[in-house]
Specification:
Helix content: 40-55%
Strand content: 5-15%
Structural class: mainly alpha
Number of helices: 9
CATH architecture: Orthogonal Bundle
Number of strands: 3
CATH topology: hpI Integrase, Chain A
Order of helices and strands: HHHEEEHHHHHH
CATH class: Mainly Alpha
Shape: globular
Largest sheet: 3 strands, antiparallel
Radius of gyration: 16 Å
Strand order of the largest sheet: 1-2-3
Length: 163
């Protein structure tokens, strides 16, 4: 189960051929949405004050997701959508994977979102809500990559200055 790390994301972004591709992979990683949700996002669904976007998720249900970063905002300030199908996004990612050697299918970004958020100190319950997982089982499965050293670093950050 590959998960795109923040460091790998930076490499992938550096190899993007256009602004749209940068916006797509930034959106996948910073929002944690499914690729099918990303393809249906439109500019009018964003609430930049709240840093959220409405996505059409599993079961044809609408939900809020995180809006991504400045790259995504820049894209949607000038465009209504990404203009790509799921297959189009997969093609972009295959090309980037070949160029960089980084395994980056669409779901690797979703897993990367979950792992990064847990390693940053968010609880699996919070990550579940942000990523739109129906059950916590997948988030817990992804967060198994959290090592003792990761946990120790988080502990020290939370307890800094209490000694």
């Amino acid at each position: 189960m590959a998960a795109v790390s923040k460091e790998q994301l930076d490499v992938l972004l550096a190899h993007c051929r256009c602004e749209r591709d940068k916006a797509v992979i930034s959106f996948l990683w910073y929002s944690g949405v499914r690729v099918s949700e990303a393809t249906r996002v439109t500019a009018k669904g964003f609430n930049w004050d709240e840093d959220t976007v409405i996505v059409l998720g599993k079961g044809n249900r609408y939900r809020k997701a995180l809006s991504g970063n400045g790259t995504v905002k820049d894209w949607f300030s000038e465009h209504d959508s990404f203009g790509l199908t799921s297959e189009g996004i997969q093609t972009v990612l295959k090309l980037l994977s070949r160029e960089t050697g980084i395994h980056c299918n669409p779901h690797a970004f979703r897993r990367g979102f979950a792992v990064h958020q847990v390693k940053s100190g968010l609880s699996t319950r919070v990550v579940q809500a942000l990523g739109g997982w129906e059950t916590i089982a997948m988030v817990e499965r992804y967060s198994k990559s959290l090592t003792f050293d990761d946990a120790l670093q988080l502990y020290k950050q939370v307890n800094e200055g209490e000694a």
